[in-house]
Design brief:
InterPro entries: DUF1062. The protein is α+β, with helices and mostly antiparallel strands. The protein contains 5 helices and 10 strands, in the order βββββαααβββααββ.
């Protein structure tokens, strides 16, 4: 039987960036935006707060863009501080590269396995889907989903009892499947 697991975000990830006011390197986004128009040009930023001192920093969404080139729907979402838009923008690699930031997903996701009914079987086939591009070690997902330790999953991998079409070392943020034989 094929089981479907899903990696779901539980909140917005922390933004890794150096704070200019304190030694902290983590900021949290709460979905607030700042929009500034100057004649026919418009700027928009996603506001993030330092987890150490509360200092506000701005991540550039766009700057010096012509007002007519920005979709009215996007402008409306920016003006209404849409938290869904904040999540979408943090997933955008162009925005992260432009602002020289990385995301810290520790504690911001959970694994939905659909229940523990697969734990007593000798062999299971699992398809893992990601609701967002969350980089997670597959070994951690398999351990959490099957109720095993990471060392036990590593041992099963070495023995060839965990088989997948993708490399299970490192981190993945895209869908994959595996077979586990106890």
């Amino acid at each position: 039987m094929l089981y479907h697991w899903t990696v779901l975000p539980t909140c917005l990830p922390l933004v890794r960036r150096r704070c200019h006011a304190c030694p902290s390197g983590r900021f949290r986004a709460d979905g607030k935006f700042r929009v500034n128009a100057n004649h026919k040009l418009i700027d928009a930023w996603l506001l993030v707060l330092c987890t150490g001192c509360g200092q506000t920093a701005k991540l550039t969404v766009f700057e010096r863009a012509r007002v007519r080139s920005v979709s009215p729907v996007l402008l409306d979402r920016l003006h209404h501080n849409d938290p869904g838009l904040a999540a979408e923008l943090l997933q955008d690699p162009v925005l992260r590269r432009r602002n020289r930031v990385a995301l810290d997903w520790d504690g911001a996701w959970r694994l939905d396995t659909g229940g523990p009914d697969h734990l007593d079987q000798d062999s299971i086939d699992v398809s893992v889907g990601f609701a967002a591009r969350i980089p997670v070690r597959p070994v951690r997902l398999i351990a959490e989903g099957c109720g095993l330790s990471r060392a036990e999953v590593e041992r099963l991998l070495a023995e060839g009892k965990v088989v997948s079409g993708v490399r299970l070392s490192g981190k993945l943020s895209g869908d994959f499947a595996f077979t586990l034989k106890h």
